[in-house]
């Protein structure tokens, strides 16, 4: 442990090192005018009385706390408390947490597959990641995790809670969850797995509508999206695109910029403002645009956060896409990871995001152009008799019999092809009303728009 007689000088030197020679504690009458001036200026920056209070509290914990705690641990606690008191996203990343952050950014880590935040001392689920233990077990965005392995989470920091949820693949953990519409806590037992987050998933839906699901913004997300768009435009017509950012917690800023750049060829994508000039960044679109004229619908919800909101906000401001769904999460702050050693770092909120039209995302989120709450599609089947069903109805004089037969045959073949295509996505559309609405909107646009020329045909 740090000797008691050395503790006060070390802590006091935090406020005095720049103004005084080593060992001097005050500016006495023998100090030069320059020293006094420097001491006065520094005292305005670092409150010496509060430093003395910190020293006193530190020493009382060392001497009177019920259990002995070494000095290094106490300093770590002090740093953690200082950062977590700033906002929910600033944190002191020690070895395990620093490694977890690097693994998450790379898209591979061990755990439950759940993005969380802190709210009123509880762990709030921002979103479960697709095809992970959390998503398969039924954990939902907006759930509050109350206990982990029967231990309450109240009092834990966010980093500590995340550390408990991480673990070796195959190991199990129990969770108790408070859900808004449930009277009692819900219990879950999840088996940890190696989480490999597939950043971009694509599917061609009926009507030549492309569906792109981005689960998280990683280093190669932009390149994967552009590759899929280029393949579709080279293989055939692409009448529209659904960009699904629901329950996407964000990720790498550069990846979000690359995604927007795939749809616009000029103008601001996003910019940041902070106190430090180095935290002020501005990103603009380039001419490298692979889908500049394809109609786009972006799906968002309350689980869409950070980088997802940057993409939705930029495309909305440029009037490049219609935003459909519900209001997004509202995380519009920038966290900079500042390494301290090879195994530790500080994650510090250093700026705010702004959309091209100078809108701050922070605590506001993106409001969709078309509000669509999530539900299942429940079609009501109706049967109407038509004129052609009536016995002895008059024929249509503008359609010749032979032409009518050929037309019927052609329509039959077309209907069969469309039926095979629609059968592939009908199940998903029936379960997902927001996706159904987005698909319907794009089908309408493609009908009213002129036929698009295959990109490979020039």
CATH fold assignment of the domain at 198-369: 2-enoyl-CoA Hydratase, Chain A, domain 1
Query: Given the helix and strand composition, which structural class is it?
Result: alpha+beta
The overall pLDDT, averaged over residues, is: 82
Biggest sheet details: 6 strands, antiparallel
Q: Mind telling me the CATH class of the domain at 198-369?
A: Alpha Beta
Q: What is the helix content? A: 25-40%
Unreliable stretches: 4-31, 451-458
Sheet-strand content, in percent, reads 15-25%
- Computed CA radius of gyration, to the nearest angstrom: 29 Å
Folded structure, characterized:
Helix 8 (221-235) packs parallel to helix 9 and helix 11 packs antiparallel against helix 12 (433-448). The chain is 36% helix and 21% strand. Among the domains are: 54-101, no CATH class; 108-194, Pdz3 Domain, CATH 2.30.42; 198-369, 2-enoyl-CoA Hydratase, Chain A, domain 1 (Alpha-Beta Complex), CATH 3.90.226.10. It has helices at residues 4-16, 33-45, 48-64, 71-84, 95-106, 133-137, 158-165, 221-235, 253-261, 307-317, 401-431, 433-448; strands spanning 91-93, 108-111, 114-119, 122-128, 144-148, 151-152, 172-178, 186-191, 193-196, 200-205, 209-214, 240-244, 268-273, 282-284, 296-300, 322-325, 333-339, 345-354, 370-371.
Write the layout of secondary structure elements.
Layout: H1 4-16, H2 33-45, H3 48-64, H4 71-84, E1 91-93, H5 95-106, E2 108-111, E3 114-119, E4 122-128, H6 133-137, E5 144-148, E6 151-152, H7 158-165, E7 172-178, E8 186-191, E9 193-196, E10 200-205, E11 209-214, H8 221-235, E12 240-244, H9 253-261, E13 268-273, E14 282-284, E15 296-300, H10 307-317, E16 322-325, E17 333-339, E18 345-354, E19 370-371, H11 401-431, H12 433-448
Parallel strand pairs: 11-12, 12-15, 15-16, 16-19
Antiparallel strand pairs: 1-18, 2-9, 3-4, 4-5, 5-6, 5-7, 7-8, 10-11, 13-14, 13-18, 17-18
């Amino acid at each position: 442990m740090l000797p008691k007689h050395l503790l006060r000088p070390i802590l006091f030197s935090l406020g005095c090192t720049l103004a005084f020679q080593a060992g001097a504690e005050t500016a006495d009458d023998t100090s030069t005018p320059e020293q006094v001036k420097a001491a006065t200026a520094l005292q305005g920056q670092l409150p010496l009385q509060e430093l003395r209070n910190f020293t006193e509290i530190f020493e009382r914990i060392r001497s009177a706390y019920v259990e002995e705690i070494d000095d290094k641990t106490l300093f770590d606690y002090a740093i953690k408390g200082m950062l977590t008191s700033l906002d929910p996203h600033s944190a002191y990343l020690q070895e395990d947490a620093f490694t977890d952050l690097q693994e998450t950014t790379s898209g591979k880590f061990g755990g439950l597959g759940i993005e969380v935040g802190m709210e009123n001392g509880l762990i709030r689920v921002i979103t479960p990641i697709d095809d992970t233990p959390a998503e398969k077990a039924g954990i939902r965005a907006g759930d509050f995790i109350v206990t982990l392995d029967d231990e309450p989470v109240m009092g834990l920091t966010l980093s500590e809670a995340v550390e408990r949820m991480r673990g070796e693949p195959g190991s199990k953990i129990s969770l108790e969850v408070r859900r808004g519409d449930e009277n009692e806590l819900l219990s879950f037992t999840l088996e940890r797995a190696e989480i490999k987050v597939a950043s971009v998933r694509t599917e061609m839906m009926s009507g030549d509508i492309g569906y792109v699901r981005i689960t998280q913004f990683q280093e190669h997300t932009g390149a994967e999206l552009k590759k899929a768009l280029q393949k579709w435009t080279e293989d055939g017509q692409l009448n529209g695109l659904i960009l699904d950012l629901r329950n996407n917690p964000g990720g790498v800023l550069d990846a979000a910029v690359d995604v927007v750049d795939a749809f616009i060829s000029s103008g601001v994508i996003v910019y940041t403002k902070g106190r430090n000039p180095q935290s002020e960044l501005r990103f603009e679109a380039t001419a490298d645009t692979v889908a500049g004229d394809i109609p786009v619908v972006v799906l968002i919800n309350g689980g869409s956060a950070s980088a997802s909101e940057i993409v939705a906000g930029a495309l909305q401001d440029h009037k490049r896409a219609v935003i459909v769904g519900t209001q997004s999460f509202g995380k519009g702050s920038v966290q900079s990871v500042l390494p301290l050693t090879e195994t530790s770092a500080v994650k510090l909120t250093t700026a705010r995001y702004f959309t091209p039209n100078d809108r701050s995302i922070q605590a506001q989120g993106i409001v969709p152009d078309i509000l669509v709450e999530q539900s299942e599609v429940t079609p009501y089947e109706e049967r109407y008799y038509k004129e052609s069903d009536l016995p002895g109805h008059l024929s249509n004089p503008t359609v010749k019999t032979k032409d009518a037969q050929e037309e019927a045959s052609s329509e039959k073949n077309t209907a069969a092809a469309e039926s095979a295509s629609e059968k592939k996505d009908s199940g998903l559309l029936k379960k997902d009303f927001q996706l159904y609405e987005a698909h319907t909107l794009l089908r309408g646009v493609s009908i009213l728009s002129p036929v698009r020329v295959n990109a490979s045909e020039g």
